[in-house]
Amino acid sequence: MSSPAPELVTPGKGRGLRDVVHNRYLLRLIVDKEIQIRYRGTVLGLVWSYLKPGVQFAVFYIAMGVFLGLNRGLTNFAVYLFAGIVLINFFSEIFGNASRSITDNGGLLKKIYLPRQLFPVSNLFVALVHFVPQILILIVASVATGWFTGVDVKQILAIPVAIAIIAPFALGLGLMFATFNVFFRDAENFVDMILMVATWASPVLYAWTMVRDQLWSWVYYVYFLNPITVAVELFHYGFWYPTVNNPELWHVPPHLLTVWTPIALVISLITLFLGDAMFRRHEGNFAQEL
């Protein structure tokens, strides 16, 4: 007896992010390739994971902490600042590199077929490689300023929740702009502008109370609809707030855990879903457009 013919599948059409799970070996190879390419020919290699955020921190600390006086207004401003920088760098690396991942690998995509989602997702794991050493430095700095004496379970749990907000949000945006970038190369310029604004549109270099006190009331609510804002405040809540000797001098944003965090998680997941849907709809045309 002859076996039934297998169901035909449209060429170039995958199952979206589900294909990444079934191609973990290929994902690992691409992640290794991305790391090797990034540090090929360099002397310091992965040390740049420490050096670049360190220089960035020093510049912002001098500009915002010393010159503008935030160092005197916020206790342990160095921990506050570095917590925000670590998280915004994580977002920037995922989003920026994922948005360029298809055009950067155009030569490979035109030769063979493999799930296109592997390239944007690989940048998430590369970003994690750089994110971990920065987190370790942040933990050491927090412990040195009294983190153990004031931390509780909710503050510890806030840290992975912040990461769970940023990762799908950045990847979803990366999938969207990776698609745009194939058809419209102007998309790279929009990505650069978004990354520039993202640092200032979230409380990385200043306190959220400045938005509440100096702008219109409706801006405050729009401000906290930004998942990056919520994630940064969760990082502050987890790393910086336990180091403050007088917590009553600094207020946790109202409803941060009960309202804004669930909203941010939902927005991040919706962004990921929309990014994956857009990517899947157009991925069949990537090779010919490239």
Automatic annotation (TrEMBL):
It comes from the Bacteria. The keyword Cell membrane applies. One of its GO terms (molecular function) is ABC-type transporter activity. Keywords: Cell inner membrane, Cell membrane, Membrane, Transmembrane, Transmembrane helix, Transport. The chain crosses the membrane at residues 50-70, 77-98, 118-144, 156-184, 190-208, 220-239, 259-279. It is a multi-pass membrane protein. One of its GO terms (cellular component) is plasma membrane. PROSITE patterns: ABC_TM2. It is found in: Cell inner membrane; Cell membrane. One of its GO terms (biological process) is lipopolysaccharide transport. Residues 44-282 form the ABC transmembrane type-2 domain. It holds the Pfam family ABC2_membrane. Belongs to the ABC-2 integral membrane protein family. This is Transport permease protein. It comes from Kocuria subflava. The lineage of its organism: Bacteria, Bacillati, Actinomycetota, Actinomycetes, Micrococcales.
